[in-house]
Amino acid sequence: MGLDGAEFSKKQESACACQGSEPSVGSIAAVLSSMLQAPPHPGNEVQVITLADLLFGRLDQRLRAGEEPPFSWNVLGSDDEEGREFVTKRYDALSENLRMGSWSGKLVESGRRLEKAGVEWRQLLQAMEVGSAMPEPWWRSYPRPVEGAGRGRSSPDRRVD
């Protein structure tokens, strides 16, 4: 007896739930880095940019939800307006290139967008590892230190901006 689509999806979901939790934000960023740094095999540009777009979407969703950024990122405070502006521009360009490249479905366009996305991701990643404020969409959700709180702890009641 075979499984229909709904039954198969439920089986997959329960199997995934039993096997462990979702990958860490750092793991997602590492996989995204490898996807965007290595050129895809010719003819695979659409598939690679589509997967990269989905992966970046998941990273974005989790960071917007307030999850801790990858361990290698050196997140600076609110006084780093110049850094926040730089990484926000990289974030916007990366997001647009991934979205438009996966949407087009054309090899040449997807290849160009994939290359541009790789440049934007590398610049964003390098800035975050050297030290920068988070891009604006992630900064709004990032727990910021509170006066008098221990290092790395935040309070939902009081924020220092």
Question: Any chance you could write out the topology, listing elements then pairs?
Answer:
Blueprint: H1 5-19, H2 25-37, H3 45-64, H4 81-104, H5 107-130, H6 136-139
Helix pairs in contact: 2-3, 2-5, 3-4, 3-5, 4-5
Keywords for this entry:
single chain; 161 residues; mainly alpha; 62% helix; disordered C terminus
Give structural notes.
With 161 residues, the protein is an all-alpha fold. The chain has one domain (23-139). Helix content is 62%, strand content 0%. Helix 2 (25-37) packs across helix 5 (107-130) and helix 3 packs across helix 4. The termini are far apart. 25% of the residues are buried.
Structure annotation, total helices = 6
Number of strands: 0
**Alpha-carbon Rg, integer:** 18 Å
Assembly type:
single chain
Would you tell me the structural class of the helices and strands? mainly alpha
Strand content: under 5%
- Overall tally of structural domains: 1
* Major sheet description: none
Distance between the termini: 60 Å
Low-confidence stretches: 1-18, 145-161
What's the rounded overall pLDDT mean? 79
Helix content: 55-70%
- What is the overall silhouette? globular
Order of helices and strands: HHHHHH
Question: TL;DR of this structure?
Answer:
The protein is mainly alpha-helical and 161 residues long. It has helices at 5-19, 25-37, 45-64, 81-104, 107-130, 136-139.
